[in-house]
Design goal:
With about 280 residues, this protein is mostly beta strands. It contains 1 helix and 25 strands.
Length: about 280
């Protein structure tokens, strides 16, 4: 969504784990691979594991299963002087009547940079918690994404639950048009469920000189509900509602030199494919 940024990030992917009576299988929801402009990508869908009868027919898309939805999605982004970005996501997920084990969060870390190179991000997950306290989680890298799997495989949850994800990203800032820029796909466009009450706050060490945001399906140029700066100088973005497969991209510009913007992290494309 929005105009092109410093580099491209592959579209996020929504995946769903199924509990098939005795044992566990993995099913991949139809993907729509595409490139989305971003200075930093954090936009893959969060989905959960569903309990279904053995030999059941394939599940319907999440959007068709009653009340399942995200009731509130808050993202706090802190740009640090060393050029790293600290992200906190607060997700209020309503599983409705479905019985799930938890959520998956994919963070794309590879993007095409040139014919020879991919640009990549370093992501370090610091903590994952929920409204029930510490939650078991694992972090893996697959298919050019860092995957956070949060939930107890021996316990199911239903109804409304809140999750907090904290992670540090390096390699996401860019210099664009003589400014230090962060372009962040705060909400991915692969969610098969509606999202309400989206709020993104970007905190920076210096004055913000430009803010912008876009909401809608992939490639949308529609502005989001609100893009402004607070009295404290933070960038604030608000979107009342996103329909299934709609996302939100935010952009924040700082005076050049406000933060250390190192050269992009590059990896030869053949090596990226092999790894």
């Amino acid at each position: 969504m929005g105009s092109p940024g410093a580099f491209l990030i592959l579209a996020s992917r929504a995946r769903e784990w199924l509990v098939m009576g005795h044992g566990t299988g993995e099913s991949t929801v139809a993907e729509r691979p595409a490139a989305i402009a971003a200075g930093l990508a954090a936009r893959s869908a969060v989905v959960a594991t569903a309990a279904v009868p053995a030999l059941a027919a394939p599940p319907r898309p999440a959007a068709a299963r009653g009340a399942e939805q995200i009731s509130r999605y808050f993202v706090r982004i802190a740009i640090r002087r060393d050029g790293s970005v600290l992200v906190t996501e607060q997700i209020l997920y309503d599983f409705g009547g479905d019985r799930r084990h938890g959520i998956l969060r994919d963070i794309p870390v590879l993007s095409p940079y040139s014919l020879r190179y991919n640009r990549y991000l370093r992501v370090a997950v610091r903590s994952v918690t929920s409204d029930t306290g510490d939650v078991p989680y694992s972090v893996s890298t697959t298919g050019g994404s860092v995957v956070i799997k949060a939930g107890d495989p021996h316990r199911v949850v239903t109804g409304m639950h809140e999750y907090w994800l904290d992670y540090l990203v390096r390699g996401g800032m860019s210099i664009v048009g003589g400014r230090d820029e962060l372009r962040w796909n705060a909400i991915g466009d692969q969610w098969a469920i509606p999202i309400s009450n989206v709020r993104v706050v970007v905190i920076s060490p210096t004055t913000t000189v430009g803010v912008n945001c876009w909401a809608g399906i992939h490639g949308s140029t529609t502005r989001c509900g609100l893009a402004t700066t607070s009295a404290a100088g933070s960038a604030v973005f608000v979107q009342r509602r996103l329909s299934p497969y709609e996302g939100l991209t935010v952009a924040v510009d700082l005076p050049q030199g406000s933060v250390n913007v190192p050269p992009p992290l590059l990896r030869e494309r053949w090596r990226s494919i092999r790894s």
